[in-house]
């Protein structure tokens, strides 16, 4: 901690923002306390900056500036994830379902989304539709059980929404949940990020 | 329930895979270390190639561009493909032509030196063992390229017949060009870009023609052919100069010609109505059924003398029972094994390849239907995941081909 603090002091000097320029030998307990406070504030600022950089990289990957070497920064926090790469957003008794950014990135250009009819029953892990890309066909599995109450009709005309906005405008169905307890079978964002990394390293 | 959205690299490999089922299964279980690598492997990876197992090779399915963009760029500007996984072969000797004529349907003797054609290796039943582009370099030298997935099978087949042929006193030998690598340069910029790298006048080299010439300082075999429907070349380059040539081509095009993977290659050949062996043509399909009647030389129709000639010539006379045709369709894109029904819902055939055409922005497919239902404009139904979708028989190619032919 002490060494880090000293390095921080030096660093601070080098960065040109001269708030705290006491030579180390003039250090008293008070100046040290002050220093630590400033240091902590600085660290906090650093964390915020790192956070902003993360956002910038998210924006970059969103705009497909760099498709190669993606990190899994686009795993949205408040969603739950299935190991077959669907997300679900729960709001009361209603759940919105779509495929993840990671999935759309691997699929490539989506050219057709096969939607179920409103009223269809879906079960956790069961297939309810399909996504067709130029590359391949893939089933979409429901991360939750219940009844389909709405389907995203926009996808009939613009299937590419699944690529451009997988977790928002590219949602696929809304489900009235029949068993909220099932949600515990799903992953949170952190677990899902790790899951994707593991899976990609296998390929 | 995994596997839905996943294993895409695997599924595409399976969809594109050539050749026999056993080999496919073996390939799927082959670990990455067992995969063969072309001399361009590191170059692909450095350029963002997503490598997948394909016919026992590690090949790029796509690079940084999407398959959609890559396909369109090939037709607008140009594409460079590494096709070194395919097997180049030379047959030499004074009897090379009569020997090859026993195995393929082409009129090899009738080819002028320096020209070539698409042909089919047939079996005793008239079915296709493989399709191949053959070139008569000279009367005693044939150069041909066979599919990667069929390499072992083809070589065994040729070798077996060569032994018998030699035993009867025929003069023929072969050389497998493993010392060379193969690049395909396709698209409207192919000729202008390649012209920067050679002194020979490429405007005098027409579709299907072949020449041995100096490109970028090394001796290459150049064939004006391809698998995209565009004008272009396949360049057989000594492997040690391969990467330099690829770099030179990309550089001379000022970034317009882009590295293109197997994914776009599949879209391009489908748009051009070209068969993929293993999907659209198999052991039990004759060249007549596959719509390659034009590839049977006139003399060969009269004389026969190739494997399965009796079956094929009879079909030629009576007409085949099934035919390969193209389709446009609505709904999800048809894929291989989708059922084709007539308007009354009766089974009339099966899709062998299909997908969304990046250039036409609609579904295209090819498949086999019963003769009589093969005419353009015939309405059909295509069953995908239990649902029927409207389809119509359509002439191929879907996208007009732009081969460089003398006007």
From TrEMBL, chain A:
Biological role: The H protein shuttles the methylamine group of glycine from the P protein to the T protein.
Record's protein name: Glycine cleavage system H protein
Subunit organization: The glycine cleavage system is composed of four proteins: P, T, L and H.
Family matches, as InterPro entries: 2-oxoA_DH_lipoyl-BS (IPR003016), Biotin_lipoyl (IPR000089), GCV_H (IPR002930), GCV_H/Fam206 (IPR033753), GCV_H_sub (IPR017453), Single_hybrid_motif (IPR011053)
GO BP annotation list: glycine decarboxylation via glycine cleavage system; protein lipoylation
Lipoyl-binding domain: residues covered: 94-176
Names of the cofactor(s): (R)-lipoate
Location in the cell: Mitochondrion
Domain of life of the source: Eukaryota
Record family assignment: Belongs to the GcvH family.
PANTHER family associated with the record: GLYCINE CLEAVAGE SYSTEM H PROTEIN (PTHR11715), GLYCINE CLEAVAGE SYSTEM H PROTEIN-RELATED (PTHR11715:SF3)
Keyword Transit peptide assigned: yes
Automatic annotation (TrEMBL), chain B:
Keyword Transferase applies: yes
One Pfam family matching this protein: GCV_T
CC terms in the record's Gene Ontology section: glycine cleavage complex; mitochondrion
Aminomethyltransferase C-terminal domain: residues covered: 323-399
Molecular function per GO: aminomethyltransferase activity; transaminase activity
Binding residue positions for substrate: 234
Subunit structure: The glycine cleavage system is composed of four proteins: P, T, L and H.
Name of the protein in its database record: Aminomethyltransferase
Gene3D superfamilies: Aminomethyltransferase beta-barrel domains, Aminomethyltransferase fragment, Probable tRNA modification gtpase trme, domain 1
Every GCVT N-terminal domain range: 40-298
Main subcellular location: mitochondrion
Superkingdom assignment: Eukaryota
Keywords: Aminotransferase, Mitochondrion, Transferase, Transit peptide
Membership in a protein family: Belongs to the GcvT family.
